[in-house]
Amino acid sequence: MLQNPDINLSVPNLSFGGRYGGDFADKTSATTTLPAMNMGEKSAIGEAIAATRLSLGQATDLAFKLMAELDQFLARWEIAGSIRRKEPTIGDIDVVLIPNNMSGLKAKVLSIDPTAHGGDVKIFFEYGGRKVNLFFTNDDAWGATLLEATGSSSYIIGLRMKVKKRGWKLNNTGLYDQSGNKIAGKTEEEIFDKIWEPDPNCSACGGVGGGGKENKCPLCRGKLAGKRYKTPENRN
Ligand SMILES: [Zn+2]
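# zinc ion complex -> structure
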């Protein structure tokens, strides 16, 4: 089931829903988890949803058209999700953004879709018949939010399991060490750099990382500097 491309439908819910909770998160889980749960069994609902997916090109065009409308209210934005991973077909449009005019942005979104809902963490609405998820962040958390909103969800779960073994925590605000200190989050690169940092006392690589397959130390699993960033299209 985790290999199914439609699993990305559950990313926003997985990543943000539980943590921010509330009435609005419940509505989200009702709309986002149902398809993913059913897809593994090739159910009728799964087939129906698959049929509504856009090609990567169509979805990219639609996403940029939307962002041209929203750009004036934003200090920074990037399209994430399955579009950023360059999946062949796309369900939702996911965008990470930092507004410079939140009230203007919300008014604009409501003018596009009066049923839009959400708050200061995320907003959901429809545009051109597609479900759009806007994820708000700030410069300090930019990389962490982008990483999580890009997915895939199985890839993010794998990263979290890896950092958990070290007593660390990864969420949409950053990477935190055993003491709860934030050690990365501004960029994806610095998060990957920390996650794949070799053990400085490793007897196999001498703290440098590398060797073996994928430049990964067979003992500490650390990677060579410059080899730690994983491009979005390779995160499935
Ligand atoms: Zn090593």
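# post-check
Residues 150-234 form a domain with the Beta Polymerase; domain 3 fold (CATH 3.30.210.10).
The pocket of zinc ion is lined by residues 198-199, 202, 204-205, 209, 217, 219-220, 222 (CB under 6 Å).
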